[in-house]
Every structure is written in C-alpha cells, then in structure tokens.
Design goal:
- By secondary structure, the chain is an alpha/beta fold.
- It is 49% helix and 19% strand.
- The chain contains 19 helices and 16 strands.
- The protein has a six-stranded mixed sheet with strand order 13-12-9-16-14-15, with helices on both faces.
- α6 packs parallel to α9.
Length: 548
C-alpha cells in the first residue's frame, strides 16, 4: 500500500538507499570511467548516503528525547545536511546538492504528489547551478529526465508514490542513453556511474513510498548506439564539467567550507581557473567544495582565503589517464592534520592529508579510505595524535588485509609529523624510510598553547576559564594570562634540555606579531638554534611547538 511522503518515509528512504547502494557499490565502482577512472563512485555514493542516514537517525533520536515527532522538514533537512557534510567525490557532492534542492521545496509542503514533482524539478536545476561547466550524458541528464517523468505523472493526478516510481523509470531510461551522449562511456560500453547511483537512489524513494521493494539490479552496460553513430561531439576523456585534457589533473580536493555567498562566488572563479570538475554545493554559510587540480595546495589556500575550510580530503590520482585505472605508486604517506594550512603543507611534502577539526577525530574507515585513495603498494600512516593510536592501528590492519603494506609511524603531534615528513625519502627502502621517519618523530618534543574553556585541575595547578595553558608532551606545565609570554616560558623549558631546531605552527587566531617575537626570543636566548614557522590555518591550536 502507498505511504505518505513524511518524516517516516524519509527515514525509510535512507535505509533502503543504503541497502541498494550496498548491493550495487562494487558494480558501480567497476563502471566508473568518468570523469576519472578511479573506481570509487559507488563507494563515494554509499558513504555520502551513510552520512545522510546518520543525520536522519540523529534527528529522530533528538525528537524522541524531547517527546515530539519529527516533521517532513526536519527529516529531509537532516538528510540533506548529512549528505552535505559527508559528501564524497564528484558524484556524492552532486547528490548532496540534489537533496538540498528537494529540501528547498519539501520543507515548506505537506509532501503531496505536486510537491514531490516540484522538488525533483528543483533538485535537477540545482545540480546545473552547482557544476561549473555542465555536460550531458552524466548524472545531470538523468536527474533532468527524472524530473520530466515526474511532471508527466503528476499531471495525471497521481499520488506521491506514483510520481516517485515514474521519476525512477524516467531516470532508468535516461541512464541507458548516456553512452550515446558521452564518448568515454560509449567506448567503454557502460552507462554513467553517477547516474547509475541516482537511479538506485530514486528506486529506493519509490520503494519507500509504495511499500513494494524491488531488488532488480540497475543495468550498467550500454544498450544505446555508440557516440559516433549518435553524432556525439563530446571529446573522449572530457572532464566532468565538459572540459579538460585526456590525462587530467593529478589531485581531487574536497573540503567543507564556512563562508558567505560573496566569498564563495569569488572562490568558484578562482578554482575554475585552477582545474576542472568543479562542484560547489550548499548554502546558508556551509558549503562542500570539490575540484580536480594539479596544485592541491593552491586549492586549499583558495578555501582559506574564502573562509574556514575543514575536513580537507586530497586524493592523488597517480597521474592516471581518464580512461585508465589509476597508476599504483610504490609508496605514499597519509597524515592526519589539524587545520587546512597544514593540509597544504602535507601536499607540498608529497603526503596525503586527512584534515580534522578539534573534537571531530576521523573514524578508522575514513583512514582506510585515505590509504586506498593513495593508490600505493606501501603506505606510511601518521596519526599525529595520541588519541588516534588505536583508530590508526585498526585502519592499518584493515588495509593490510587488502594487500597494502602499511607502517604506522607513532607520531603524537602534528610537529612530529612534520619532522617525519622532512626526512621521508621515497628513493630508499621502505624499512629504512620507516626507521628514519620514526626516529625523526621520536627525537621531536612537542608542545601546544591552548586557552582553558573552564576552571579545572592541571599538573601545574588550578586554571580558570580564559587562562593560557602551555602543554609539553601532552601535560600542562605552565598557566599564564598572555599567549606570547606563556609561549616563551614553554620554549625556555623545552630548550633547557637542548635542541637545534624549533618549529612553530601558528593557528589562525594567533596574534599577528607572535612568530616574530618568538623567533627573536629564541635567537637572543638560545644560540645556534634555528626557527621555522608554518601557518596552521583555521582549527589548528593557537600555537604548536616542536623542538628537535
């Protein structure tokens, strides 16, 4: 029997979508030849919907605790927000925008058939707005076909379930035509992978509303004429937005960004000049940015200039052609870092960063995914946080079962990771490199300057909210009222045991003259000690210190 389009239906939709994408993810990964043949579209869509489903469950739990029932706006809004913050890859980012477009309509309606029809139309239109240079034969085409089919069904006074089923069938038909619209698909004899995922998602919606669950797999092979016969003029290997050379950029860069509309408009223009496959989705101050570039550091820096980027994910394509599997490299480094500024530094050093915000540590699955995306036979994993030791160990063990040789470098702070990267040498043997990086990290004492959030007991005494805390090797040793003076005291204590190099990592909120004053202090008080300064960016601590 048909069900109404309400909060319960959205919850059911999420669950069914996860089930179908779980079944289809490997098949969708296998046909992922566009825009880059990196074989992860199915996985990215699954992870995106997993984040959406978690957000919906959290919304229901919150209402249960309050003794209320969620409405359609609560559920669909949570689904869209969860997809936005968890979007992976080009396809996941576009699906997040689709859900946001649906939310813009459904949040203010009662979930009628006409509302669903208008929501699907808005969803399709919003994807074209998000992609810098749209091209047909992709998920965009499939979304438009779904909206067209929904329009026709709604005109016949159908219910929401019938509209959803019509949209699903319209998407299926359009999907089978994609090889005739995009040359790279026609030559490979497959349909568009992102469109395939959207068909699965719409099928789950139709099932949730009709109560009739279908287990028919999505067709992934082409049955349409090849591009040449269809008169397709899209060049083989075109970028996701319709531009680009066959080889394509070296990196995929994704991050969440807190920024205003005007800053994001400028960011779009800058990123469009840096690379291709540009998709920027979101609104109301929170955005998900996706782009393929050769200069990953520049893409991250553009985000820093626009606002506050976090959850930075950088994937190296290994110089892969857009029509070939990504090349496996001999060795790679994956490093967890606080703040986008350090993410850019890692990229410059040849490492793949996993940027995190305070209080939001990565799960082992996220680290496993980063190891996979490194496309390397040997990987050094730098957790850069003592609390991530077990998480990183679990990720390393999982990656080993998949045939990747992983060494866990026991870095307990970002400055130890910087020291380890400084001696990383891909030209020597893996074991020798691991020993050198481990030794460099172990020879680096680390400190952090933080601001106390509340009164509490520490090893240095009782601190009050607003006090500046100086931590050495994880323990509070100094309580002060001034960041610069407290930092000087911490430096003196660390250098009293000797040292040749001081590393300073400045957070975005650090005083402007802090680095200059600390460099002068070290130069005047500690002879023959060099100082190097890095910008940590947003979400890094006010000051990180390393002494080697």
């Amino acid at each position: 029997m048909p069900y109404p389009l309400d909060a319960a239906a959205v919850r059911s939709w999420c669950g069914l979508a996860l089930e179908v994408l779980g079944r289809e993810r490997e098949r969708i990964d296998a046909i992922n030849v566009y825009p880059v043949a990196d074989g992860d579209t199915g996985t990215n869509l699954y992870l995106t919907l997993e984040s959406a489903a978690r957000a919906v469950e959290a919304a229901f739990d919150g209402h249960t605790s309050a003794g209320t029932a969620p409405c359609l706006a609560d559920a669909i809004g949570a689904m869209a927000h969860g997809a936005l913050i968890g979007a992976r890859g080009n396809s996941g980012t576009i699906v997040a925008q689709l859900l946001r477009g649906m939310t813009e309509v459904l949040a203010a309606t009662d979930g009628s058939a006409d509302a669903l029809r208008r929501a699907l139309r808005r969803a399709a239109a919003s994807t074209y707005e998000a992609v810098a240079h749209p091209v047909e034969g992709t998920v965009l085409t499939v979304a438009t076909a779904a909206a067209d089919a929904a329009e026709r069904a709604a005109a016949g006074a159908a219910g929401a379930a019938e509209v959803a089923r019509a949209a699903h069938e319209g998407a299926r038909t359009a999907l089978q035509a994609t090889p005739g619209q995009l040359a790279v698909l026609g030559r490979a004899g497959v349909v568009d992978a992102g469109g395939c995922g959207l068909v699965a998602l719409l099928g789950a919606l139709a099932d949730a509303l009709s109560g009739e669950v279908s287990v028919t797999p999505v067709a992934v092979r082409a049955d349409a004429p090849l591009p040449e016969a269809a008169g397709c003029e899209v060049a083989d290997g075109a970028a996701a937005d319709g531009r680009g050379d066959p080889e394509g950029p070296a990196f995929e860069v994704i991050y969440l960004l807190e920024a205003g509309d005007a800053a994001v408009a400028r960011l779009r223009t800058r990123l469009d000049g840096l690379g291709d496959s540009l998709v920027v989705v979101g609104g109301d101050g929170l955005w998900n940015v996706h782009v393929h570039v050769d200069d990953a550091g520049a893409a991250v820096e553009a985000g820093i200039e626009a606002g506050r980027p976090y959850r930075v994910r950088i994937t190296h394509f290994g110089g892969a052609s857009r029509t070939k599997e990504p090349a496996m490299t001999a060795r790679a480094v994956v490093a967890v870092v606080p703040g986008a500024g350090l993410a850019g530094l890692c990229v410059e050093a040849g490492a793949m960063p996993v940027a995190v915000r305070p209080g939001e540590p990565p799960a082992s699955g996220e680290l496993v995914q980063a190891i996979r995306q490194a496309h390397a036979r040997e990987v050094m994993l730098l957790p850069n946080d003592p609390d991530l030791r077990h998480t990183a160990a679990a990720a390393a063990e999982q990656a080993r079962t998949e045939g990747v040789r992983v060494a866990l470098i026991p870095t307990r702070a970002a400055v130890q990771g910087i020291a380890a990267l400084a001696v990383h040498e891909p030209g020597r043997s893996f074991d020798e490199d691991v020993v050198a990086m481990t030794a460099a990290a172990g020879a680096t004492r680390y400190a952090e300057l933080a601001v106390a959030e509340r009164q509490s007991w520490t090893m240095a005494g009782v601190c009050q909210a607003g006090d500046v805390l100086g931590l050495i090797d994880g323990d509070v040793v100094v309580i002060g009222s001034d960041l610069t003076r407290t930092a000087m005291t911490v430096l003196d204590r660390m250098l009293s045991a000797g040292g040749e190099m001081v590393t300073l990592v400045l957070g975005a909120d650090a005083p402007g003259a802090l680095a200059e004053r600390l460099e002068r202090h070290v130069r005047e008080r500690h002879l023959a000690v060099d100082t190097v300064v890095y910008e940590g960016g947003q979400h890094a601590a006010p000051l990180l210190i390393g002494v080697e």
